[in-house]
Amino acid sequence: MKLFNSLTRQIEEVVPRQPGKIGMYTCGPTVYSTPTIGNFRTYVLSDVLARALKFVGYDVTSVMNLTDVGHLTGDNEGDANQGEDRLEKAAKKEGKTAWEISAAYSSEFMRHMEMLHITRPNVVCKATDHIAEQIALVQKLETKGFAYRIGDGIYFDTRAYERMGHRYGELSNLDEMKKGARLEPNPEKRDPRDFALWKFSPEGVRRQMEWDSPWGVGFPGWHIECSAMSMKYLGEQFDIHVGGEDLRSTHHPNEIAQAEGATGKEPFVKTWVHGAFLLVDGGRMGKSLGNAYTVQDVVGKGYDPLALRYFYLTGHYRKQLNFTWEALAGAAAALARLRAAYQAASSSQGDRTQLSEEKLSKVSEYTEAFAAELADDLNMPAALAVVWEVAKSNIPNYDKVDLLDDFDRVLGLGLGDRVEGIGDREIPVEIKQLMAKRQELRAAKNYAEADKIRDEIVAKGYAVNDEAV
To answer: Do 156 and 185 share a domain, yes or no?
Structure first.
């Protein structure tokens, strides 16, 4: 399999450190609010990649973190001395403790993962469960001469790191990494690029989340958790690290610096995979813009969450994808047609003994074509095209079902699952009106327009059974 490696900026063959085995880490969410469908594009990417690696024969160990400890928002931009603690801010807003906030949003995140058929990683690790590992890693960096103390915490020394022959910020493609923080720099820092490893709790203030450490009571910097936890579960060097492209500028370069500074081993990770942003109506997504949609918003509009998963698959992970409700409706309609093709083939599979050499060869070609698209930098739009070729082909239905089942191990669309619960909920007035309009069009023999309305109804998560009318 070949993937684009953000570290080398080229497509490379995946060569695991241990033959046949892949260790893969994904940066998960900070659980202070509901992740958006933009966030979930990355998590579906991670899931599809793990599934694809398994499909082509690798034994995959996948790890994802949950950042359930607050860190100051300035840490995202290179200066942990500024900004607010997102968990404590959410706790005040919702009248709960930071611990209750993290527990609630962690549970919600896992529910949304299930709704999108994202396979639970082998390890889901929480930052608050690994404070000891983070402290131990900071101590190791301190021993190696890559950490120093100032008034508000322990910081990573980028100049010392570079003096030892390491290249800091090699993964980043942003000028900000070289210039330092985009915020007003902390004057105590030796270099604007230095970042917090451990923060001290402010004097006279008791934070909801703080721990004893060799340096005093405080809390970990943001970046240290991923280095500590990934190395605990995957080793000091491993194969693939996945995340959104926003993490490429600061968080991931800092992960590399911490890990390689502590172990002296390069590279920390062989292949870095970054997913592109999800646009909304052609522009950026943001809570202030009112378009930071969630999985629950998708469900609230009447869509199957797997329509969103299908939508993600229609774009290459390295290219921006534009979300609109019209595009989601199209994805929902396409998924409904694919499910219908599967069900039709499944209900009339016929005699498995009747298979010509020509059709046997065709089945093999489809499997090879699908695997080839996966191996070509996870080209899911092209892989979907192969799926549709199979769905429309004249190969025996039992082979069609077998192939679609096999491909769905990667797609994760639940083609063999019956959509439950539709009959248990009251049909909205909007759907009833569309059904009535469709019957009028059919009675007038205007089948083209009637079919358009049928697709609209299906896209909203409702089955259309003309035989029952």
So the answer is: yes
SS3 270: strand
Please tell me whether residues 167 and 242 are part of one structural domain: yes
Instruction: Respond yes or no on whether the N-terminal peptide bond of residue 214 is cis (omega within 30° of 0).
Output: no
Measure the CA–CA gap between 249 and 420, rounded to whole angstroms. Answer: 43
- Give the global pTM: 0.87
What are the pLDDT digits (tens) for 201-251?
988 888 899 999 999 999 999 899 999 999 999 999 999 999 999 999 999
* In-domain check, residue 434: yes
pLDDT band at 179 (very low <50, low <70, confident <90, very high): very low
- Residue 436 is part of which domain span? 422-468
Question: Over the stretch 34-65, which tens digit does the pLDDT of each residue have?
Answer: 999 999 999 999 999 999 999 999 999 999 99
| Encoded tokens for 58 | 């690798």
Say if residues 318 and 10 touch (Cβ distance below 8 Å): no
Find the farthest-apart pair of alpha carbons in the chain and give their distance in angstroms, rounded.
82
Beta strands in 188-328 (DSSP E): 196-200, 218-220, 238-244, 269-275, 278-280, 321-323
Rounded CA separation 269/253 (Å): 11
Residue 447 lies in a domain: yes
Mark whether 305 and 231 lie in a shared domain: no
Task: Please state the length of the chain.
Answer: 469
Look at the alpha carbons of 155, 159, 165, 168 in this order and tell me if their dihedral is positive or negative. positive
